[in-house]
Design goal:
Elements: H1 2-24, H2 29-51, H3 57-60, H4 62-77, H5 79-82, H6 89-110, H7 115-136, H8 142-145, H9 150-165, H10 170-191, H11 202-209, H12 215-218
Helix pairs in contact: 1-2, 1-4, 1-6, 2-4, 2-7, 6-7, 6-9, 6-10, 7-9, 9-10
């Protein structure tokens, strides 16, 4: 029951973040609903397919569909109110990331998956919705460029797996993992923490500064 509650709440907050991005991109009602539904259920559907739990619970259980579409409708019709929370899109996304990461890891453990695979499935469940959202609106996925996104999911899923190996109740491990993941994500956003990126070479810097010659400019003058 705890896994179901966490997944439904995670579906809502992920769908809400997807719908908010859809409205910001000025999509119509259908586009906002498609984005909210896809973002809300993508991670869980991918996990269920990999575990062989078909049809995925996100489409076999009406509650997931209603929650995802309800978040889209709520955002579309009450956008002036929700727009005041624009700065909380990343917070909602971080909450969804945490909830899906821990529930995905726990569901993998319940299916008898080995600990390493359970951690990876937890991460995939957490980042799947955000990656699909960014791809649908033609942006580089947040997981590839932002502050400690997949790393936070990895930490939360790892806590769940460690708790399974220790005499710790699953509910306690899931709550601790979710809090760790969410806390890391929020602190990383506030402080700008991110993994190292390669330094551009001197030639790359010159190419960025100097304008690129056009074909006409490179052609010999007569």
């Amino acid at each position: 029951m705890l896994v179901v509650v966490l997944e439904l709440f995670g579906t809502f907050v992920f769908a809400l973040s997807g719908a908010m991005v859809g409205v910001q991109k000025r999509l119509d009602l259908f586009g906002v609903l498609v984005l909210s539904f896809a973002v809300g259920v993508a991670g869980g559907m991918t996990r269920d397919v990999l575990l062989g739990a078909v049809p995925p619970v996100a489409i076999s259980d009406w509650r997931y569909i209603v929650v995802a579409l309800g978040a889209g409708l709520l955002t579309f019709h009450w956008w002036p109110v929700i727009d005041r929370l624009r700065g909380t899109v990343l917070i909602f996304d971080g909450a969804g990331l945490a909830l899906f990461a821990v529930s995905g890891a726990q569901k993998a453990l319940d299916a008898g998956i080995n600990p390493v695979a359970a951690v990876l499935l937890g991460v995939l469940t957490g980042v799947g919705g955000g990656m699909l959202r960014d791809v649908l609106v033609s942006e580089i996925p947040t997981v590839l460029r932002s502050e400690l996104y997949a790393v936070a999911a990895l930490a939360g899923a790892t806590v769940v797996v460690i708790g399974d190996r220790l005499p710790v109740p699953a509910s306690v491990a899931m709550i601790a993992g979710a809090l760790l993941c969410f806390g890391l994500r929020v602190v990383a956003i506030r402080r700008g923490w991110q993994l190292p990126t390669p330094r551009p070479s001197d030639q790359s810097r010159r190419d960025e500064i100097s304008p690129v010659e056009t074909t006409e400019e490179r052609a010999p003058r007569r």
